[in-house]
Write a structure and sequence with these properties.
This protein is α/β, with parallel strands linked by helices and about 500 residues long. It has 14 helices and 21 strands. Strands 2-1-3-4-5-6 form a 6-stranded parallel β-sheet, with helices on both faces. The protein has a 5-stranded mixed beta barrel with strand order 17-18-19-21-20. The protein has a 3-stranded parallel β-sheet with strand order 9-12-13, with helices on both faces.
Length: about 500
């Protein structure tokens, strides 16, 4: 079916959510819907939500109000409606569950007809929860050079503050062979950087009898020259089991020496209230071991300020941890009580105290400069993005540190050598030296082009791929029309013969 109707897609939240949004865009575009950037031009808004923090949900709610104000059809998806489908402000709206994204076309079609549809079930195989929708679905990557692959959904924890658990549920992992196949397909389509993501990458495979290192070694074999792999967020309990193997993998030249390990608090009593299932000593062991075995590794982490019952002494322990390690990437979050979570019922820290602690740790983070010592170094970077100010290209070195360089189209998607000429708080600045390096194995798809299980398009350019799809559609209409004419001719012939007799 070809449709003239248009859809605006908005995604909030994590890399997993962004991957889901890309898959939904791909399916809708494959079916003939036009994906547009201007929301008020669209017939329908597909709103892909995040439930981690209250502000993200507020943005989602405000978008629904805006859509209703402008008489737009609405489909909601993501973690908010999955975790709380009875919320008043989504009453009567169509919902695509987080494991039902492969059915987004059905929901959109029915919604445009004026119906309300809700699909919230889990994907299961032989009674076991799976990773979710198939990985070979059509997809439109926001960045044609970067493929986001969710290796699993859900987690094994029961953190008292987490609403995402209500949405994504218990652990469900994809089989390694499906993930490897997706990676290979991505590289064939010109991707040069893969991000592995999930709610807890370190827990991957515990439900299907495999481990994260087993998966990573298989993926490493597929990475072509000129491409890189980034391992996603992992909580301390599960990565502790694999430190030796993880160190070896992070040393691999085609894997970024980068790991996001959220600590959330430097106090064991706070971690216990959070039900994080590790102590500060476990976190230190992870960081210390990886720093020793993978020199220069970037460890990113998160902290929550003002968790219920956190004392001044508890918070000081968190400050001490940041002072000691001087994390180059630190995500600072104020505690937001999420409805339906145990932490929402705990005694709150006074709001002014929460603000004071957030300011204190923010000032500490701003007080050190993690990259100054790198000025003058020569580094190799993979260029994949455009900076927020749209004045520079952005690449990442082996340690996934952001390096900005002058804009030059021939650099995008290539490994290039740079000399670091200056350093900011969050980035390095480089100038090109030497050869431009090699691109990814194939030219990337055009921005907005559909990736996915289109065998006839795998070895063609994106423009040829679109043309092939159009030709297929035209061909289908031709044969349908011819069949109708032949049938009409036969009917007339039969009637004529009967009349003659």
């Amino acid at each position: 079916m070809l449709s003239t109707q248009s859809i605006w897609i908005k995604t909030w939240g994590c890399a997993h959510n962004n991957s889901d949004g890309e898959y939904m865009a791909g399916q809708l575009a494959s079916f003939g819907y036009k994906i547009v950037d201007q929301k008020y031009e669209a017939d329908l808004w597909l709103l892909n939500s995040c439930t981690v923090k209250s502000p993200a949900e507020d943005h989602f709610r405000n978008a629904i109000i805006d859509a209703q104000k402008h008489s737009k059809h609405i489909v909601v998806t993501g973690c908010v409606p999955q975790a709380a489908p009875k919320n008043n402000y989504i009453k009567g709206l169509s919902v695509v569950g987080v494991q039902q994204i492969d059915r987004v076309v059905e929901v959109v079609e029915e919604t445009l007809k004026g119906h309300s549809v809700r699909l919230l079930g889990q994907k299961k195989l032989s009674g076991r929860k799976t990773g979710g929708a198939p990985l070979d679905l059509p997809k439109i990557r926001k960045n044609p050079l970067i493929e986001i692959i969710a290796v699993n959904t859900g987690c094994l924890n029961q953190c008292t503050y987490c609403k995402t658990k209500h949405a994504r549920g218990d652990l469900g992992s994809y089989p390694p062979e499906e993930l490897v196949a997706r990676a290979k397909q991505s590289f064939e389509e010109g991707v040069c950087e893969i991000w592995l993501t999930s709610e807890d990458t370190g827990a991957y495979g515990k439900d299907i009898g495999v481990s994260l290192p087993e998966l990573l070694w298989k993926l490493v074999e597929t990475i072509p020259e000129g491409a890189m792999l980034r391992v996603g967020m992992t909580n301390p309990p599960y990565i502790l089991e694999h430190l030796q193997e993880m160190a070896k993998i992070l040393q691999h030249p085609r894997v970024y020496a980068f790991l996001h390990v959220p600590v959330q608090a430097g106090s064991d009593s706070v971690l216990m209230d959070m039900k994080r299932e590790y102590c500060v000593a476990d976190f230190r062991r992870v960081v210390d071991f990886l720093k020793e075995m993978v020199p220069g590794i970037t460890i990113a982490t998160d902290v929550i300020c003002g968790f219920p019952r956190e004392t001044d002494e508890d918070f000081e322990e968190t400050l001490d941890l940041v002072r000691e390690y001087k994390f180059p990437s630190l995500f600072i979050n104020q505690f937001f009580p999420r409805p339906g979570t145990p932490a929402a019922k705990m005694p709150r820290v006074l709001p002014q105290q929460v603000k004071k602690r957030t300011k204190a740790i923010s000032e500490l983070f701003q007080s050190y400069r993690p990259y100054n010592h790198k000025v003058g170094e020569r580094q190799q970077i993979l260029v994949t993005e455009i900076s927020f100010d749209e004045k520079h290209y952005v690449g990442h070195n082996k340690f996934y540190e952001q390096v900005i360089i002058p804009m030059d189209e021939q650099l995008m998607g290539k490994m290039v050598d740079v000399e670091i000429i200056s350093a900011g708080k969050h980035y390095l600045e480089g100038k090109i030296v030497g050869d431009l390096g090699s691109p990814s194995i194939n030219a990337p798809l055009a921005k907005g082009a559909i990736s996915g299980n289109h065998e006839s398009c795998n070895k063609t350019s994106s423009a040829e791929c679109v043309q092939l799809v159009d030709l297929k559609t035209s061909s289908s209409y031709f044969w349908i029309g011819l069949s109708v004419l032949v049938l009409a001719f036969l009917v007339r012939l039969v009637l004529k013969l009967r009349g003659g007799s």
